[in-house]
Amino acid sequence: MASVFEPTLSTSRPPPPSQSLADTLPSINFGFEELRDRMAKFTAKFDAFIEQGRKRVLEERNQFRMNVAELKEDQRMKKKDIEIIQLKTNTYQQTMAKEAAETREMQSAIAALSQQRDKQAAMRDALKEQIAATQKDIEARLAAQKAHAAQMEAQARFNVPELDFWVTNLCMRIEGAGAEDRLKFVYTHVDEKNWDREAWFELSTGSREYDVRHCRPKLEREKVERVLERVNETRELAVLLKGMRELFVEAMKS
C-alpha cells in the first residue's frame, strides 16, 4: 500500500472548457423508485395492520363491554334471586317461629287440659266416694228414723192417755213446727200476772236423743241440757214436759 496519497489523472486534469462540473461527476443510482415502492407497500401493510388492530381492539372492547353488561345483568339477577331467597328464608323462619310458638301454646294447652282432666277425674272419684258415703249415711239415717218412728209409734200407743193427762194438767197444747221431725209444745198459765201469756219450745225427734232447738222465752242452755239429759236417760216424755214448764215458770218470775 502506498503511504502517500497521489492524485489521479482525472482529478489532476482540469475539465474541458465545454463541460460543466456537474457533468463531470459520476452518475450514482440510489434506487429511489424501488425505495418509494417498498415504502408504499410498507405503509399499506402498516395501515392494514393498524386497521386490523383497531378493528380487533374495537371488537375486543365491544366484546368486553358485552361481557361486562352480561356480568352486570347476571349480578343483578343473582342479587334479585338472593333477595327473593332471603325473603323466602325470612318468611320461612317467621313461619317456623310462629308454628313453634303455636306448638308450644298447644302443648301448654294440652298439658293444662290434661291436668284439668286429671283434676276433674280425681274430683269425680272423690265425689263418687262422697256420694256413696252420703248414700250409706242417708240409708243408715233412714233406717234409724224408721226404727225410731216405729219405736215412737209403739210408745205413742201407750202414751196417748198419759199425754192427754199432761196436756190437760199442764195447760199446754201440741202444734207442728213446720218439719216432720219437730214438735212445738205451747204452755199457758206460766205467768201469774198474765195467765194468757204463752211459752213454748220446739222438740227435735230426728235422732235417738231428744233435743230442744228453740224456745220462748229464752232459757239457760245448761238448765235445758240437764232436763234433756234426764229425759234421754228415762225416755219418758212426762219428765220433759214437767221440767220445761218448771223452767218457763221460773223464767217468768225472774
Query: Which strand order does the major sheet show?
Result: 1-2-3-4
Helix tally equals 4
Structural class based on helices, strands and sheet pairing:
alpha+beta
* Quaternary structure classification: single chain
**General form:** rod-shaped
Approximately what portion of the residues adopt beta-strand conformation?
5-15%
Report the count of strand segments.
Answer: 4
First and last CA, distance: 195 Å
- Helical coverage, percent range: 55-70%
Uncertain runs: 1-12
Order of helices and strands: HHEEEEHH
Mean pLDDT: 81
- Report the major sheet: 4 strands, antiparallel
Radius of gyration: 73 Å
Summarize this entry quickly.
This protein is α+β, with helices and mostly antiparallel strands. 68% of the residues lie in helices and 9% in strands.
What does this structure look like?
By secondary structure, this protein is an alpha+beta fold. The chain is built from four helices and four strands; from the N terminus they run ααββββαα. It has a four-stranded antiparallel sheet, covered by helices on one side. Helix 3 runs antiparallel to helix 4 (237-253). The longest helix is centred in the middle third of the chain and has 138 residues, at 32-169. The radius of gyration is 73 Å and the shape is rod-shaped. The chain starts with 8 loop residues before the first helix and ends with a helix. The model is unreliable at 1-12 (pLDDT under 50).
Which features does this protein show?
254 residues, alpha+beta, four-stranded antiparallel beta sheet, 4 helices, disordered N terminus
